[in-house]
# Entry
Amino acid sequence: MVTINTLNNFHDFVSVEFRLTVLLLT
# Structure
């Protein structure tokens, strides 16, 4: 079962990846 903490960690990871991608594309 997925815990809230795991979801938060996943969201943080996606946010970081998104920012890195934006930096690379600009």
Q: What stands out?
A: DSSP finds one helix and no strands in the chain. The helical segments are 4-25.
